[in-house]
Amino acid sequence: MTTPTNPRLRYVYAVCRPFDGVLPEGAAGIAGDPPRLLHHDDLVAVVGSVPAEEFDEGPLRARLEDLDWLADTARGHDAVLAALTTVTSPLPLRLATVCRDDSGVRRLLQEGHDRFVRALDRLDGRVEWGVKVYAEQVADAPAPAPREPVSAGAAGAAGSGRDYLRRRLRERNGREDGMRRADAVARALHERLSGHAEAAALHQPQDPRLAGGAAGVNVLNAAYLVGRDRSEAFVGLVGESSGDGVRVELTGPWAPYSFAGIAEEDPV
């Protein structure tokens, strides 16, 4: 028996229940391989075929250090989940969940069956919405250190120094006021949205370098699990919250990435 020159592995995007219809067109999948449905008892795995030279254990460890490769893989993963979310309520699996072959995928479903079923019960009919709150700040213009004017004496230099310090103090006080306003908005908004959602997850504030050039300081980075039938009202609540110096950003609806671990919780 010959070994294939370009062996392929099974990339598992998500687990879901059987559903009518097919995956929407346009979800090209990672490595250009369209995803397919692999049925096993009462569960379905959404899988694709990926090259072993990239996704086998050793190469994958190295690839995960390549930010460009990681971003491309995450985009492909997200595109499949977004398409899947339009037709069912999936349980997203971790990025780069890979099995050797279809038999390995079936073992994954079999061994995790009860955990997957419990999670799907809790996620059925629900989507994730993301909400970020920013304290908007205008970048300070570079302020040169005070220096003595050419034709001014000591009194002029002292006045220039005082003016400089007053300006810097006003700037600092303005930043602190903006942060306090944004923090108050974030706290009130999170409490209101949590009351409307079925679950909430607080993430670390986003690093400004990863915010795509968005102005401001991220003071709230949260995800909310919301019933599809309550999403319109949820969006309305978010829209009421922006104000002077505070920007609120809403994203979604997504597959419930932030709540995939809900399967590990005790059933209620």
From TrEMBL:
This is Gas vesicle protein. It comes from the Bacteria. Belongs to the gas vesicle GvpF/GvpL family. One of its GO terms (biological process) is gas vesicle organization. It comes from Streptomyces kanasensis. It is found in: Gas vesicle. The keyword Zinc does not apply. The keyword Transferase does not apply. GO terms for cellular component: gas vesicle. InterPro entries: GvpL/GvpF. Keywords: Gas vesicle. Its main location: other.
